[in-house]
Amino acid sequence: MEMNGVTADGKKLFLFDVDGTLTLPRQKISPEMRAFMQEVRKKVPIAVVGGSDIAKIVEQLGDSLEDVLSQYDYVFSENGMLGYHGSKQYPVTNLGTYFGEDKLQKVVNFCLKYMSGLELPVKCGNFIERRNGMLNISPVGRSCSQKQREEFNEYDKVHGIRAKMVEALEKEFADYGLRFVIGGQISFDVFPVGWDKTYCLQYLVDDFKEIHFFGDKTSPGGNDYDIFIDERVAGHTVCGPDDTKAQLTEYIK
Ligand code: M1P
């Protein structure tokens, strides 16, 4: 098996984004996809790297953390800030400790001020979620319903709410060494340069000769872009779980 110029003479790993790759955005994996991934795993070890925190990844991929860890050889949340190999947990990286509370608060305050000036069809709650390794900023608010989520996403496509806010943040904090990356439907992630999905590769590169990454946000500005173009992986763009399944079916024949 050869893919994207990576030779086929080594130990392989298939590494997957979650939202839009194994599941629909923020939805639970389908029973068919779940079963299919276990068929894939009989041939090639599998890993996931999501931008979301571990609670959301567990909600989407299984019934409990133990269940998810038993289905995938490696599980990385927040781009790898929190990671597991089986039940072994890698050291947790903390944004506040690394970046400093002062600077972080300047970013938070700017976001709050910026969002207070936005007029949207609806605003819910939970506009800023602080995670281990990133801030997640949502102009509509993470407490929105599924319907409001989809409506915001459509509205954002027309009005570029997130893109404009990211532009303003990039200008304001040009010297902070931060990335502002749109990964899902209603929010964007803020983390230090280098804390993108390539972060998880440090735990994989010594053990695998071929790492194949599958993601849907592989264009510049998307949260799969950095790992997609990383020379240590072969990148594959998918457009949803059905496409991931179709591409994998071809590869493992
Ligand atoms: O995994 C992609 C993104 O998923 C969520 O995005 P949203 O809620 O906007 O659809 C978030 O957890 C985000 O952090 C993550 O990058």
CATH topology of the largest domain: Rossmann fold
Average predicted local confidence, pLDDT: 94
Gross morphology: globular
Query: Using only CA atoms, what is the Rg?
Result: 18 Å
Percent of residues in helices comes to 25-40%
Alpha carbon gap, first and last residue = 9 Å
**CATH superfamily of the largest domain, called what?**
HAD superfamily/HAD-like
What portion of the residues fall into strands of 2 or more residues?
15-25%
Determine the oligomeric state from the structure: single chain
Order of helices and strands: EHEHHEEEHHEEHHEEEHEH
Structural class: alpha/beta
The largest sheet is: 7 strands, mixed
How many distinct domains? Answer: 2
Small molecules held by this entry: 1-O-phosphono-alpha-D-mannopyranose
Question: What is the highest CATH level, the class of the largest domain?
Answer: Alpha Beta
Poorly predicted ranges:
1-9
Q: What's the total number of strands?
A: 11
Please describe what this structure looks like:
There is one protein chain. The protein has 253 residues and is an alpha/beta fold. It has 2 domains: 12-81 and 195-252, Rossmann fold, CATH 3.40.50.1000; 95-192, 2-Layer Sandwich (Hypothetical Protein, Haloacid Dehalogenase-like Hydrolase, Chain: A, domain 2), CATH 3.30.1240.20. Helices cover 35% and strands 17% of the residues. It has helices at 31-41, 54-61, 65-71, 95-99, 101-116, 146-159, 161-172, 225-228, 241-251; strands spanning 12-16, 46-49, 74-77, 82-85, 88-89, 128-130, 135-137, 178-181, 188-192, 210-215, 234-237. A 7-stranded mixed β-sheet has the order 5-4-3-2-1-10-11, covered by helices on one side. The chain has a 4-stranded antiparallel β-sheet with strand order 6-7-9-8, with helices on one face. A hairpin with a 6-residue loop joins strand 8 and strand 9 (188-192). The longest helix is centred in the middle third of the chain and has 16 residues, at 101-116. The chain is globular and about 55 Å long. The model is unreliable at 1-9 (pLDDT under 50). Residues 18-19, 25-26, 50-52, 56, 136, 183-187, 189, 223 line the site of 1-O-phosphono-alpha-D-mannopyranose. Mg(2+) 1 binds at residues 17, 19, 216, 228. GO terms for molecular function: metal ion binding; phosphomannomutase activity. Keywords: Cytoplasm, Isomerase, Magnesium, Metal-binding. Homodimer. Pathway: Nucleotide-sugar biosynthesis; GDP-alpha-D-mannose biosynthesis; alpha-D-mannose 1-phosphate from D-fructose 6-phosphate: step 2/2.
